[in-house]
Amino acid sequence: MAESMEKLQLACRTVAQTHGIDRNLVYGEGRWPHPRIMLIGEAPGAQEEQQGHPFVGKAGKNLDHFIQVLALRREDLYITNTVKFRPIRVSSKGTVSNRTPTRTECSWFAEILEEEIRLVSPDIIVTLGNTPLAFFTCIPGTIGDVHGQLLSVTVQDTAFPLFPLYHPAAIIYNRALKTTYEKDLDALRTYLESTMG
């Protein structure tokens, strides 16, 4: 099966070459197959691009809180992003910052993410924010409509439970979401506890 994951990484590099993405790619990593959670974020940031691993730096601190609340370890998870490169914007002063990937950029990696989900075959998929949620076109509405709800999605004829969460970065910009996010994490922990066995 490792060969299949290697093929997935090769497919990512092919997409990057095809679309002129001249940036370091960050692949999914963690336990597979059958982790407790497959965590899908939006895109790598500066630290992720530099270190070549998903959810490090500031995102890593958010992940530490996530796994602490859920009483899990990082090695219980498989962690990936909707797109595998860092989308950036450059200001008129030359300052580089992160931006949300476009729908087109997400579409470039859609088949790869679908195959990644099939290979990883998690107990549950947890999405962070609107970008990974939008990958599942069967889900109506935005993260504000469905956060903290246990949903079901089908990927390549296999059904998976899906639990959408707000992106932790959203809480930095909107402190009012913190209580909601914590409540949603508690609901996810309750679900995980009820399915242990």
Verbal overview:
There is one protein chain. Helices cover 44% and strands 18% of the residues. The chain contains 9 helices and 8 strands. The protein has helices at 2-18, 46-51, 57-69, 103-108, 110-120, 130-135, 143-146, 168-173, 177-194, and strands at 29-30, 37-41, 77-81, 88-90, 96-98, 124-128, 151-155, 158-165. The protein has a 6-stranded mixed β-sheet. A two-stranded antiparallel sheet has the order 4-5. Strand 4 and strand 5 (96-98) form a beta hairpin. It is globular and about 45 Å long. It starts with a helix and ends with a helix. The mean pLDDT is 94.
Task: Describe the secondary structure blueprint for this structure.
Blueprint: H1 2-18, E1 29-30, E2 37-41, H2 46-51, H3 57-69, E3 77-81, E4 88-90, E5 96-98, H4 103-108, H5 110-120, E6 124-128, H6 130-135, H7 143-146, E7 151-155, E8 158-165, H8 168-173, H9 177-194
Parallel strand pairs: 2-3, 2-6, 6-8
Antiparallel strand pairs: 1-3, 4-5, 7-8
Helix pairs in contact: 1-5
